[in-house]
Amino acid sequence: xxxxxxxxxxxxxxxxxxxxxxxxxxxxxxxxxxxxxxxxxxxxxxxxxxxxxxxxxxxxxxxxxxxxxxxxxxxxxxxxxxxxxxxxxxxxxxxxxxxxxxxxxxxxxxxxxxxxxxxxxxxxxxxxxxxxxxxxxxxxxxxxxxxxxxxxxxxxxxxxxxxxxxxxxxxxxxxxxxxxxxxxxxxxxxxxxxxxxxxxxxxxxxxxxxxxxxxxxxxxxxxxxxxxxxxxxxxxxxxxxxxxxxxxxxxxxxxxxxxxxxxxxxxxxxxxxxxxxxxxxxxxxxxxxxxxxxxxxxxxxxxxxxxxxxxxxxxxxxxxxxxxxxxxxxxxxxxxxxxxxxxxxxxxxxxxxxxxxxxxxxxxxxxxxxxxxxxxxxxxxxxxxxxxxxxxxxxxxxxxxxxxxxxxxxxxxxxxxxxxxxxxxxxxxxxxxxxxxxxxx
Length: 441
Ligand SMILES: Cc1ncc(COP(=O)(O)O)c(C=O)c1O
Description:
40% of the residues lie in helices and 14% in strands. It has helices at 9-19, 29-43, 61-72, 86-100, 114-126, 144-153, 169-178, 201-214, 276-279, 295-308, 313-327, 333-352, 383-391, 423-436, and strands at residues 48-49, 109-112, 135-140, 156-161, 183-189, 217-221, 252-257, 270-274, 357-358, 362-363, 366-367, 373-377, 395-396, 398-399, 411-414. Strand 5, helix 8 and strand 6 form a beta-alpha-beta unit.
């Protein structure tokens, strides 16, 4: 018989049965979402929902106004250029100069249908550069959809969990893959979804040096741009800058999402920034698939054309206006999203003081930052068991095991949808969980 759990245990059991779930711990994010919707409806209790990684802040008026204006001006009836409207390309180039301190020609600054499409286009194109180089390497944990993209393309990938390979250890590990000769590109996100680790300068330097040595392209996913709040990356043209591998190699593609940093997820507009060197590289093997052997040309007129013939017209104006005001120092986008970090700090404390542990807790010797996600575990529980049990306490999250993490005890918690008004409930529920599951230390 269950103890007095914060959520009525009979209702939870009954809804699990109704959904016919063999295991709640192994259910997909969408199934968990459905289960919780049903329990919330029946009990009237609101869950602390940490399963979905979606932005929880309103979009900026600057973007919305510019988009409405563009629509009124008639852009909806016209095809946009595949490689983007000129004013957006200029602002992206200014943005990467101002916030990453790198020089990229506007030609290589491309809007994409979310940074998700930027990843897809990179994988398709990079896998066709050199015959025999047919495999992507993921530095995991990572965003599961990127692997899904490989599966639907029928492309090969390898992956390793970086947990045991931080700092100098990363060199040998990466080199062991690069030496095989089949890796065309490497993908990682920084800050990292799901763990919120951030690579140190030393680690980025190792990645960059090896990219040069082995001619491997680094696809750096900056979906959470400038959101390592331990440092202030918010001032255009002023250090410190968002760390990037682009300081250490010319062989890169950067994927910059507008979904989280600019709360513009719904309009599906992202940025793909291709280094000057890669953009102008000639690779004869490309001719197997494209009419050209030039990387930039193949990417735009081959891949992006085939995928969606460019990015929706009006969101490009929204992003251009937003970037312009950010570049001019008029709009501080980092200040707006700092709320995620502040909430994470409070939520992590609630878990840690009740016996939970932060799984990925360090960047080399530094404690990790507070941001969009954090990872937790509880002694004696696998991740799957923990998800299942926490449902009875009105808390939801996802298992790290679907992200390529080897830490099967861990869960990913996302702070974005949890309101501050829920903190007292969260505290009470986590305390109850701790009380019902004493830890023998
Ligand atoms: C690591 C990572 N990459 C890419 C994306 C997708 O971004 P977009 O909405 O720009 O397609 C996300 C969104 O959650 C993400 O977490």
